[in-house]
Amino acid sequence: MNNFIPYGHQWISEEEIRAVTQVLRGDWLTQGPAVEAFEAAVALAAGARHAVAFSSGTAALHGAYFAAGVGPGDEVLTSPLTFVATANAALYLGGEARFADIDPATGCLDPRKVREALSPRTRVIAPVSYAGYPAPMGEFLSLAREVGALVVEDASHALGGTRDGRPVGAEADLTVFSFHPVKHVTTGEGGMVTTDRDDLAARLRRFRSHGIEKAPEALEGPCEGPWYYEMQDLGYNYRLTDLQCALGLGQMGRLEGFVARRRELAARYDEAFGSVPGVQLPPRHPGHAYHLYPLRVEPAWRRALFEGLRRRELGVQVHYIPVPAHPFYRKRYGLALGSFPQAERFYASEISIPLYPALSDPQQDDVIRRIQEGLREAQADRKRMWLKTGG
Ligand SMILES: *Cc1c(COP(=O)(O)O)cnc(C)c1O
């Protein structure tokens, strides 16, 4: 299988391995200096005053919705075209997920559809910067202000991206990142929430650690001594370890290079597939972070192409099965097929092809050749079927 090329892959340096080893030889395995250093690096890159590390992107979403005040009866309005965690985290808090359709041009939540779905119960609007395309945050922020909601950007795909020259993470009330190995920067498992607001940052820190508050000035009752702390909220153990943060800190040092390389690879794909009939390229944006390179093809031959590419040892993937179509959500909300026509059509036509900074030019040329072959085969198959059945 050494010819196999996945759709995403981490890139760990020897220096990062040494940094992790150094933590192992030190005094803190968790909650030591590496956590703060990693948080500071992400806050800087995201243009936010605070960054709070979590044990996964999912835990970070849970924390962000908690900080935003989501509870029973509240709704988190999000995109159907996302990983299930974006919606699930609302349910963890006793709230509900609501969906609005996407803009087919970008794959991101459509502000016009959000307006139609807003309700007095909307506590959070949670746009997803799909594939790394920076979703239009200004529009979501003004919609949220109309109903007294907050915006939580799921920027799991968009670390290192920008909009109007400002880093992703600088605009939304709360921004969530993931450090899963296929994402821009990895800690194995890991996540982060950035925010400018001191009160939200304090809630995030408590939530990450059992709801416990230690700062004397933030106690509800009198401080009974130097040992004293209070549990003020029902929190979790969602801490990220120093081992992981040492890795993440090293990775952050290479973020700019990672994003630049992803953009280079995307431009080469644009060039290779731009004039292929029946193939639609991902949208361009000067601040695109390119977590994914989502090609769109005719739904009628997407499956044949997908299988042909897997046969050619390309680890292609589909992002995403619309969240409300999963059995759990179908049973919970009973949304009929056709409720989100744009997201459904996007899903039916999408294939994510290999994109990660360690992919070399010759490897990418090889990927392009395999995809061109696969495209010819899938289209020919389709034509044969069409002739056989008379259309
Ligand atoms: C990866 C991802 C998450 C969850 O992140 P984990 O770190 O795997 O928990 C959430 N939302 C989106 C859109 C993602 O891609």
Automatic annotation (TrEMBL):
Protein name, entry field: UDP-4-keto-6-deoxy-N-acetylglucosamine4-aminotra nsferase
InterPro entries recorded: DegT/StrS_aminotransferase, PseC, PyrdxlP-dep_Trfase, PyrdxlP-dep_Trfase_major, PyrdxlP-dep_Trfase_small
Residues spanning the signal sequence: none
Residues where N6-(pyridoxal phosphate)lysine is found: 183
Top-level taxon in the UniProt lineage: Bacteria
GO MF terms held by the record: pyridoxal phosphate binding; transaminase activity
CDD domains: AHBA_syn (cd00616)
Source organism phylogeny: Bacteria, Thermotogati, Synergistota, Synergistia, Synergistales
SUPFAM superfamilies xrefs: PLP-dependent transferases
Organism: Aminomonas paucivorans DSM 12260
GO BP annotation list: polysaccharide biosynthetic process
Record keyword Nucleotide-binding present: no
Active site: 183
Keyword Signal tagged: no
Keyword vocabulary terms for this entry: Pyridoxal phosphate
Family: Belongs to the DegT/DnrJ/EryC1 family.
